[in-house]
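Key result, reporting period 2: structure in, sequence out.
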């Protein structure tokens, strides 16, 4: 975020109205002003708005319009989204936001749902800033701000305190969020002061006991752990430290009645054993600071700050618990899918959305193709779709299948995607069947996919008159992985260059020349390349739409989007994908509104470059449609076929400099012979429609709760592992390279000389 502050004009209680031009206006309701600065956390803002507007915290969502765009609402989900909104309004004093949620803020429900006491009262703030000398007064102040009615106390005493001590306890990190770990530990040393100390309930007593043991670094165990009484001792064998506390009905307090405060176990045995609740509260605070903390990093910081040693499973479970409190339940997200799909379809008429669950009510598949995407593909994009997949990096290991087109500027345009429990032939066949229903077209579509996926048979079976080619990106990746020495001539570094030259060659003789260059360097590389049928990957032999110049990973954008929110539940991941798609459509629509040329800028520049080269060519008339063009070499231009013997016009969709020389000689307009897919009008048509996001995505409105509860239950899938291919893609995104082991004895890959099975 930039420096300074931004005043949010928070509107709520009204409704959005669609105008004739498709823009939205907000009618009715009330407005409140809230100031934020670069350090504001979204969680703090959300809690402030929930209190200010009397809205249920969990259902509350905050939305805004991009500057200059009143058609699509953007949802703020986390600190990064808030930063992005702040940056969009850089230089502005105010920004309009729209707050939506179910009426009724309940602090107790908020504390139970999130395990938090965020935004404590003034008494809490005062308390945490006092030194440890103020412990007796702190006990008295605690009673001031935690006082409840007698009925509430009795209900909590009877029902809310579980034996594991994890329910209803205070959020340690939030209550002491103004203190460093060292200051917290110093204060916790006085959490237990001895006989006569009073607590509101057994829950508060357990919480204080946990902090006390952490601060003094010892482990304790309960002998009795009930809602009405608790007794225990130091876990070290023979140590005399012990306690007994119980509920006093007449005073309505939980009081320490007996306590031996002396440890006889020695310093060596003093290692604390944290409860899950304490661990979750500490980890939650760390995740607020950095959502992508690794378990090892968290374990080290807790050992450093509190002297608590944790194993991996403890930290992992703590992270899961913290994320569930911060972001919602992973399991509950699946149960919201039917409601979410219905609302998404309602907001985007004409879209194709299909949810499939198995006989055990477990999630199996979800297909989504928006009307905006279908319209853009059919009216502005070449009939070319890239099929790929990437992992959602969830604990349930779902896979994202994608069908992606290219706009006139060769940038990705998502057409359809599906989330499946497992990637296999069956899931791909299902995805392609749904895709055919969504993009039914008379055009012959060219599909491109990773050769390793083996999708050719399915594609050609499901789509009539389709073409299928292998992804150049994936072929090059496999090519480089399979390179084996020795290398000659220009060396290994020349091989990828010659491989790409072979793929993009317009003529078969040019393809063979590039292949021969590969052979001169490595016969093994040549043999690997030639085993792939040229008609499925080389420009010279391929019959479908030209795509060989696309050498980047089309699916990388999806992987990058997921990388930002990999820890979130499924519904929130879906919202992030939709937000990213919506932002992409809006930004490109806005950018193209400033173009005043016939072709998009990148293609316009190519035509200008070719026009300059055309000035030096000589045109000879053979007929009204056939022309001979002379320069460094001689080529024939056929106007009827829109083709030149150099093959550039056919391969690119833009006239070559030979054809432009003919246009100049015959008075023809060059733009009449450019592919319509490269015009500004087609580009704008691609991005002419918007994706409408769903409001109150994290929780259905109160009036719809009954219908949601009556809907069929959806459980998480039971997939147990993530495919290796997606792990490799993530390592590539993160810049992690894994070395291939090569045997120095037989030159084989995958083992070393010690495990080599070849005999000498």
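The corresponding designed sequence is given below.
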């Amino acid at each position: 975020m930039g420096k300074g502050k931004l005043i949010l004009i928070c509107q709520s209680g009204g409704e959005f109205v669609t105008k004739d031009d498709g823009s939205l206006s907000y009618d009715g309701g009330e407005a409140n002003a809230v100031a934020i600065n670069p350090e504001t956390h979204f969680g703090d803002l959300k809690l402030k708005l929930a209190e200010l507007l009397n809205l249920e915290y969990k259902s509350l969502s905050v939305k805004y319009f991009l500057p200059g765009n009143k058609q699509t609402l953007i949802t703020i989900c986390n600190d990064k989204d808030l930063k992005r909104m702040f940056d969009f309004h850089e230089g502005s004093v105010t920004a309009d936001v729209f707050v939506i949620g179910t009426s009724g803020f309940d602090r107790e429900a908020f504390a139970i749902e999130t395990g938090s006491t965020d935004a404590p009262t003034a008494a809490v703030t005062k308390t945490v800033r006092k030194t440890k000398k103020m412990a007796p007064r702190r006990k008295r102040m605690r009673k001031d701000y935690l006082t409840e009615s007698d009925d509430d106390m009795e209900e909590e005493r009877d029902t809310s305190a579980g034996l594991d001590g994890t329910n209803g306890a205070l959020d340690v990190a939030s209550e002491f969020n103004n203190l460093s770990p060292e200051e917290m530990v110093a204060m916790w040393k006085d959490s237990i002061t001895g006989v006569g100390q009073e607590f509101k309930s057994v829950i508060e007593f357990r919480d204080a006991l946990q902090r006390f043991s952490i601060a003094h670094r010892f482990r304790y165990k309960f002998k009795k752990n009930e809602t009405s009484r608790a007794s225990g001792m130091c876990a070290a064998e023979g140590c005399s430290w012990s306690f007994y506390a119980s509920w006093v009905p007449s005073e309505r307090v939980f009081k320490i009645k007996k306590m031996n405060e002396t440890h006889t176990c020695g310093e060596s045995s003093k290692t604390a054993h944290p409860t899950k609740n304490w661990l979750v509260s500490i980890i939650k605070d760390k995740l607020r600071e950095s959502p992508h903390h690794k378990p090892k990093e968290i374990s080290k910081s807790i050992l450093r700050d509190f002297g608590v040693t944790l194993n991996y499973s403890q930290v992992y479970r703590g992270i899961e618990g913290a994320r569930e409190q911060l972001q919602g339940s992973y399991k509950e997200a699946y149960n919201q899918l039917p409601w979410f799909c219905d609302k998404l379809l309602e907001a985007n008429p004409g879209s194709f959305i299909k949810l499939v669950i198995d006989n055990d009510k477990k999630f199996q598949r979800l297909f989504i193709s928006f009307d905006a995407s279908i319209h853009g593909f059919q009216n502005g994009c070449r009939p070319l779709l890239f099929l790929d997949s990437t992992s959602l990096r969830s604990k349930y290991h779902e896979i994202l299948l994608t069908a992606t087109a290219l706009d006139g500027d060769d940038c990705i345009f998502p057409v359809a995607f599906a989330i499946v429990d497992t990637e296999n032939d069956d899931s791909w066949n299902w995805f392609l069947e749904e895709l055919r229903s969504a993009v039914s077209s008379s055009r012959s579509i060219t599909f491109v996919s990773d050769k390793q996926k083996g999708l050719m048979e399915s594609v050609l079976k499901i789509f009539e008159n389709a073409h299928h080619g292998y992804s150049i990106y994936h072929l090059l990746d496999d090519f480089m992985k399979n390179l084996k020495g020795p290398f000659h001539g220009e060396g290994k570094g020349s091989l990828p260059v010659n491989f790409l030259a072979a793929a993009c060659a317009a003529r078969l003789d040019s393809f063979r020349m590039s292949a021969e260059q590969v052979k001169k360097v490595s016969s093994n590389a040549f043999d690997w390349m030639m085993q792939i049928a040229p008609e499925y990957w080389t420009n010279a032999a391929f019959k479908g739409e030209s795509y060989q110049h696309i050498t980047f990973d089309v699916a990388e954008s999806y992987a990058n989007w997921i990388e930002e929110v990999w820890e979130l539940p499924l519904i929130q991941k879906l919202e992030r994908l939709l937000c990213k798609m919506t932002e992409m459509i809006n930004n490109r629509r806005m950018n193209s509104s400033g173009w005043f040329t016939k072709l998009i800028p990148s293609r316009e520049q190519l035509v200008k470059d070719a026009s300059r080269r055309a000035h030096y060519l000589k045109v000879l008339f053979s007929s009204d449609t056939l022309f001979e063009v002379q320069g460094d070499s001689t080529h024939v231009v056929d106007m009827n076929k829109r083709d030149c013997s150099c093959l550039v016009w056919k391969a690119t969709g833009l006239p070559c400099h030979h054809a432009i020389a003919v246009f100049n000689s015959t008075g023809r307009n060059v733009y009449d012979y450019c592919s319509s897919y490269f015009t500004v009008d087609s580009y704008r048509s691609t991005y002419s429609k918007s994706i409408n996001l769903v409001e109150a995505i994290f929780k259905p409105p109160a009036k719809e709760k009954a219908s949601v509860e009556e809907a069929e239950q959806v459980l998480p899938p039971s997939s147990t592992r993530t495919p290796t291919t997606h792990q490799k893609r993530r390592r590539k995104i993160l810049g992690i390279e894994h070395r291939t082991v090569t045997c120095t004895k037989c030159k084989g890959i995958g083992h070393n000389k010690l495990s080599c099975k070849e005999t000498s």
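Residues 115-174, 696-703, 722-739 have pLDDT under 50 and may be disordered. Residues 570-592 form the longest helix (23 residues). This case is discussed further under Risks and Mitigation.
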